[in-house]
Automatic annotation (TrEMBL):
Residues 5-166 form the Hydroxymethylglutaryl-coenzyme A synthase N-terminal domain. It is an enzyme of class 2 (transferase). PANTHER family: 3-HYDROXY-3-METHYLGLUTARYL COENZYME A SYNTHASE (PTHR43323), HYDROXYMETHYLGLUTARYL-COA SYNTHASE (PTHR43323:SF2). One of its GO terms (molecular function) is hydroxymethylglutaryl-CoA synthase activity. It comes from Streptomyces rishiriensis. Its EC number is 2.3.3.10. Keywords: Acyltransferase, Transferase. The lineage of its organism: Bacteria, Bacillati, Actinomycetota, Actinomycetes, Kitasatosporales. Belongs to the thiolase-like superfamily. HMG-CoA synthase family. Residues 177-255, 260-323 form the Hydroxymethylglutaryl-coenzyme A synthase C-terminal domain. This is Hydroxymethylglutaryl-CoA synthase. CDD domains: init_cond_enzymes (cd00827).
Amino acid sequence: MSISIGIHDLSIATAEFVLPHTALAAYNGTDIGKYHVGIGQESMSVPAADEDIVTMGAAAAAPIIARHGKDRIRTVVFATESSIDQAKAAGVYVHSLLGLQSATRVVELKQACYGATAALQFAIGLVQRDPAQQVLVIASDVSKYELDSPGEATQGAAAVAMLVSVDPALVRIEDPSGLFTADVMDFWRPNYRDAALVDGQESIGAYLQAAEGTWKDYTEQGGRSLEEFAAFCYHQPFTKMAYKAHRHLLNYCGYDTDKDVIARDLGQTTAYNTVIGNSYTASVYLGLAALLDQADDLSGRPVAFLSYGSGSVAEFFAGTVVAGYREHLRTEENQEAISRRTPVDYAGYRALHEFKFPADGGDHATPEQTTGPFRLAGISGHKRLYQRR
Ligand code: CAA
């Protein structure tokens, strides 16, 4: 008999600042309906100068360590597509900030927004092999596009940390998975750029093609039927994309695309992404956090996941919500991570967007802006210096 493995704990973190879309619309003259209704976004998280994927990832993971201790964690997998170094894994900084044991393997994974799902699946494999160990999966990203580009309205920043173990308290991850890979250039970020490049309409088409492909493989592998799922957690580059993808999948499977049915299937997965913006690898698991935090009791109900990463790789899989999960949620802390953000005006956001360390190898301190538990104090000799506040 196969053992039960999945998400034992889940915690989220986001950035210090928030830019409401009303401020962006007022600046660029866009009708606010395009943002609020057309793409389904209300505001975006904006990192302080002394925040990045490491500080957010550590902030998301710290409460998990506080609750479960460190002794069983032998692997940390850090998924990101806004990497801060070409060699050293961001998770190594987190390992240090959290004081994890030296007998740990730490690695960074990349495949656009899909990376965290690869991390989760690899974690399950490791736990299967050694059921005594727990794996800390961290998904952390800063979504950054060019100023004044169509992508700008879909920026955001957040991290999700998940503890993967046997007998999970939240969600048991099931086999099979539906898989899909296609070589497309819908979204990418060459090494010499810090803002991503994207072909917006191509990316939407590539996502829908991947949704279809993963579903086809999922059914061929003997997966559940669509109507069994209580809810669907999609990757949400902007929340309306989840609606587009679900409508596409229902159509593909020959179902009516009734608005109420789509809202019922997705409605409770979008609350965090709507106000945080795109958090790339973290986005699909922010969808799960919002669902678990808000939905009526889901005990024993299967939930679908569609994880999409441009380029492109996608996976469709299912998880069953574990009875009693509500006692283990972090609803208040999750909502506090969002509500504690400080609104920034358009000029302040623009200055943060343009903030960059000189690449001269000198000593550069960052302004003290974050009120979160960890900060990037600066760089010295090309080395990033982190500290606990
Ligand atoms: N009131 C209501 N709705 C309005 C409106 C108004 N006043 N004005 C426009 N709209 C609607 C449009 O009709 C459109 O809706 P539909 O898509 O349902 O037709 C929607 O608002 C957006 O309008 P446009 O298509 O004209 O917007 P745009 O060209 O400025 O860009 C975008 C939209 C392509 C998503 C752009 O924001 C972008 O490039 N984003 C980054 C790429 C991205 O997120 N791609 C998603 C798939 S790739 C992926 O998932 C990986 C990832 O994380 C990047």
